[in-house]
Amino acid sequence: MNYAKQPNREKAAMLMISLGPEVAASVYKHLSEEEMEQLTLQISALRKVSSEQKEAILGEFHDLAMAQSYITQGGIGFAKTVLEKAVGEEKAMALIHRLTSTLQVRPFEFARKADPKQLLNFIQNEHPQTIALILAHLEPVKSGQILSELPPEIQSEVAKRIATMDRLNPDVIHEIEQILEKNLSQTDMQDYAQSGGIEAVVEVLNGVDRTTERTILDALEIEDPELAEEIKKRMFVFEDIVTLDSRAIQRIIREVSNDDLLLALKVSSEEVKQIIFKNMSQRMVDTFKEDMEFMGPVRLRDVEEAQSRIVGIIRRLEDVGEIVISRGGGDDIVV
Question: 241 burial class (0-12, 13-18, 19+ CB within 10 angstroms)?
């Protein structure tokens, strides 16, 4: 199979699966909400990543990463020389061609990834010519959304300026682009057994923080409600501890650190606290309650990270068969 001709989104999904849930979760933290949603949908659509596919995708990623590194260090000429010695002239030229086309970023590329409403807030008070210049470089759908939300008195003026826009000095475009990007950046924008599909998405989502998880699932509920529901059915979150039997909970308590458990219980429901305390010795319960009382305020992020680490331990214990998690409805599947 010629993997070079596969769509880039599919390659990205295969790469995430090949790298494993922990690395994939780290990558997710650097993506926009739209990118996370698209990548999650693509991962869920993959049925299986074979060993051959994994080797090809990882190899391509390695080659591209090395090529970009060489370009950064010493320009195209240096990169071409090094790559020719490493992989041969033909493959070196192919890599250089792909990278140089990628590095030729279109003006306002960052704005294409921004939320239309947020972009609108930054440009609606600009001169109509500036607004027209920015909208002319966005996708038609996004430009249309922003144009329709502009004050009525300038909508037609902006539309006219887009229609009559001639070639502009690249330096002018670059200056406007830099100013807008700086303003936007100061805001709050921002192994799977070689199998893909829903289980792969679940693995990734169980590795991200709860806020990111909720963001992705909320977006998926709009895009594909059935898929979102199926993913949620298979996910295990900290509050699901109440569904485990006493033996499993006792095993988990022995495995996790007291500090993580203390943080995780700080904002958990009374039901979760009671079932945890029920499986502790009275002395341990008294110690935990006393520590919680004197703990004081804690950051929600720290609590979520502690809960995420505990969920990771639970999934590991499940994988090795030390605990059993029942999933589904009346026809539960025991794994």
Answer: buried
